[in-house]
Amino acid sequence: MAGDELVIGADGRARPRWAAHDPLLRDYYDHEWGAPVTDERGLFERLCLEGFQSGLSWATILRKRPAFRRAFDDFDVDRVAAYGSADVDRLLGDEGIVRNRRKIGAAVTNAHATRGLREHGGLPGLVWSFRPPARPRPVSTAEIPTRTPESAALAAALRAAGFVFVGPTTVYAMMQAIGMVDDRLEGAAGLLGTDA
């Protein structure tokens, strides 16, 4: 039951365990996770950060997000697409971010792919075209998938468009974060301070 998986905070609001104790995660859950993101820069940032998160905790990425934004020119697609080997070396030396050559390279590759989509409806058009039908909110974490047919299809479409580091699980995490699916547990506090 969701009641067993929710934690009541000092403010009286019910949150899932992952967002109940760490103030940074709690704020992210309350004010950002699940809020619709429909602009190119915002989607590019989420896609990059989900790729950097692979194998790490989301809390690690969230703590480093200000440094990521500085290092990657606030995820400006055109600027990141223009990065060359000197920029990659600069990023590999930046202790504020995750210094993984493949993930840094993926961000640059994905900036090129994002630019390529502009002639075909753009990244927002592609991503949101895979929005699944609404479904009842889960009552337990066991009901929350880690991937879905839609996330697998979106991952395949992104790879076909030249993106990398976009597997179905990574893509599903992005779908949750950008509000394409609502995986807040039944009875959990809603977005931006509202109750479910």
From TrEMBL:
One GO BP: base-excision repair
GO molecular function: DNA-3-methyladenine glycosylase activity
Short name of one Pfam family: Adenine_glyco
InterPro entries recorded: Adenine_glyco, DNA-3mA_glycosylase, DNA_glycosylase
SUPFAM superfamilies, alphabetized: DNA-glycosylase
Gene3D superfamilies linked to this entry: Hypothetical protein, domain 2
Coiled coil: none
Domain of life: Bacteria
PANTHER family xrefs: DNA-3-METHYLADENINE GLYCOSYLASE 1, DNA-3-METHYLADENINE GLYCOSYLASE I
Protein name as annotated: Methyladenine glycosylase
